[in-house]
Specification:
alpha+beta
């Protein structure tokens, strides 16, 4: 496709074929009027004169009726070509070579020459050549000048056609460029308007979001939210922080206050010691590391601290520390969300005191009941019947169960207080595991559960309390048997793992939902699968087990798939400290 054809297809507004034909119609009409008026140009050949009028009329009708813009651009020259031939007929009918109407050839000639395509130069020149030479062939040459003029004029018209076509070609290029530029400007204008509208909409949304965030921010009055930069200087201070610590935002956000200023030095130093930071003097940077060391490692940190108010009052809080990120995901600071735990800890203390008190008050009468039940069973002077002995056995079993529950409550009260006695000595774990398995075999047999023991022949010795470790293993085996339906299997294994000893209790029972695993060590918590399947228990076994394991410097690993089974492992260090009384560190359960 030539550039002229391509340009001709660009939707640039231009006159229709009929509008281009109007000058020819007007010129032809004037010529006809001049020819028919008295004393006008004489009509020398009537039929040819009428044929010219008829031909120009046909061309005019075609220009009006046919939708030339829908056709191929090359067909547009049909109308001016017919008009040019009609001018030739008009000339032959009004004096031939002497006709004054030869000037009308310019109108259709310019139209043809200005159309797109170099071929139209030839069409315009050849048609004009026919019109101008027709009198020479019809009337014959009169003089040599007529012959020269007849052949010279078409050459001039050819040159004019070239010039007109080139000028029209350049104008079309300029018009196309202008049209394209106009379209681009319109598109850019539309984009600008759309961007402006979107900007206005986003600005309105941003204002609404800011108002909402500010409302939420002002509504958070029960939690202290403190934001710092990477060095710990405070730059965010919410109304909750004002209420908790007694300072306004203007007083704190001045580039001088450090978050460490509101912490107890003793707690910071203790935390640094736990991080194995053996320092005699603590700098500000090191103190801040005690608060954000876990966050810098890539995870959030939830820890109990004590805030120190400017008036000297202390506030027990639980602080969740998280990173502050910019739009590129880079850490630019830290956020500390603190919840006042004063009332919660007081309630917990009162609850523990109440549980301990009730447990002590229940233990004495339960011991008396069991003693008298034993006397009734062993009384030879008044022997009991078989039915009475059966009733007595039920009473004894329930009394023992209640006594175990009281013992568990007392033990958990000791755990919550932070200290309980341990008799530390060398413990051979194989014997502890075997004893727990053998004591549980009757229960497993009654439940129809296969109990498997996998204990190595070589001794595996740790430092610990034999009774407490046995209690921990008993709890795990008992739970596994309760959660495993008839026909299932419970496997109790002991194995060395580097410098650790691992006691694993694995069952093929009902399992525990994954979302509940982190709550299993909480007091009185029972898994949803236990309640749905009516598994007996009060939710203290794993709490006691974890406390015992933690006191021995170990950890409790739990893995479970609901409907498949559960595996709980006690991981103990081969060597542990040897205190007579063990403190319970705040250890988190391994995932």
């Amino acid at each position: 496709m030539t550039i002229d054809r391509w340009l001709s297809r660009i939707p640039i507004d231009s006159p229709s074929a009929f509008m281009k034909q109007v000058p020819t119609i007007l010129g032809f009409g004037i010529a006809v009027i001049i020819a028919v008026v008295p004393n006008g140009v004489p009509i020398t050949n009537g039929p040819i004169f009428v044929a010219g009028i008829a031909l120009v009329t046909v061309a005019s009708i075609l220009s009006f009726v046919i939708p030339w813009r829908r056709l191929h651009p090359e067909w547009a020259v049909v109308v001016p070509t017919l008009s040019l031939l009609a001018v030739g007929l008009l000339r032959l009918g009004t004096g031939s070579g002497a006709s004054p109407f030869v000037v009308l050839t310019l109108l259709p000639f310019v139209w043809i020459a200005s159309e797109a395509g170099r071929i139209n130069i030839l069409i315009a020149a050849l048609t004009t050549f026919v019109v101008l030479l027709a009198p020479l062939f019809v009337d014959g040459a009169r003089t040599g000048g007529d012959v020269v003029r007849a052949f010279f004029s078409p050459v001039i018209y050819l040159i004019v056609a070239v010039v007109v076509n080139e000028i029209a070609h350049r104008m079309r290029i300029q018009l196309a460029a202008a049209h394209e530029s106009s379209e681009k400007q319109d598109a850019l204008l539309a984009q600008a308007v759309s961007a402006q509208n979107e900007l206005v909409l986003n600005e309105a949304r941003l204002k609404t979001a800011n108002r909402l965030i500010q409302s939420i921010w002002n509504a958070v009055t029960e939690q202290s939210v403190i934001g710092t930069d990477l060095d710990g200087l405070i730059d965010v201070w919410n109304p909750g922080a004002e209420k908790m610590l007694g300072l306004t935002e203007k007083q704190v956000v001045d580039g001088k206050h450090h978050v460490i200023d509101f912490h107890l030095t003793s707690e910071i130093e203790q935390r640094l010691q736990d991080m194995d930071a053996r320092l005699t003097t603590v700098s500000s940077v090191d103190e801040f590391s005690a608060l954000v060391d876990t966050v810098r490692a890539g995870s959030a940190d939830v820890r109990d601290w004590t805030y120190l108010r400017p008036d000297g009052k202390r506030v027990a809080v639980q602080v969740a520390a998280t990173p502050r990120l910019d739009e590129n995901g880079h850490r630019v600071g830290f956020i500390f969300v603190a919840t006042d735990m004063t009332q919660a800890r007081e309630f917990a203390r009162l609850k523990d005191e109440f549980v301990g008190l009730i447990s002590h008050e229940l233990r004495t009468p339960l011991s008396s009941i069991l003693g008298y039940l034993e006397l009734m069973r062993d009384d030879e002077d008044a022997p009991l019947s078989e039915e009475q002995l059966q009733y007595l056995g039920v009473a004894e079993r329930n009394a023992h169960r209640l006594l175990r529950l009281v013992g568990d409550l007392l033990f958990t009260a000791q755990v919550e207080s932070g200290r309980f006695p341990l008799d530390i000595k060398d413990v051979e774990l194989g014997g502890v595991v075997s004893a727990s398995v053998e004591s549980a075999r009757p229960i497993a047999a009654n439940a129809g559960v296969i109990l498997v023991s996998d204990v190595p022949e070589s001794p595996l010795v740790v430092r610990g309390d034999t009774v407490r470790l046995g209690q921990a293993v008993d709890n795990l085996v008992s739970n596994a048997l309760k959660f495993t339906p008839s026909g299932g299997t419970v496997t109790v294994s002991l194995r060395p793992d580097g410098e650790q000893a691992v006691i694993a209790v694995t069952d093929t029972g009902i399992g525990i939902p994954a979302v509940e695993l982190s709550q299993l060590s909480q007091r009185f918590f029972r898994a949803s699968t236990a309640t749905r399947n009516a598994v007996p228990g009060v939710g203290l076994g794993l709490t006691i087990t974890k406390a015992i394991v933690t006191a021995h410097g170990g950890r409790l690993d739990i893995a479970s798939d609901e409907g498949i089974g559960t595996s709980i492992s006690i991981v103990l260090p081969v060597e542990t400290p040897q205190p007579v009384t063990a403190a319970i560190p705040r250890a988190e359960m391994a995932p």
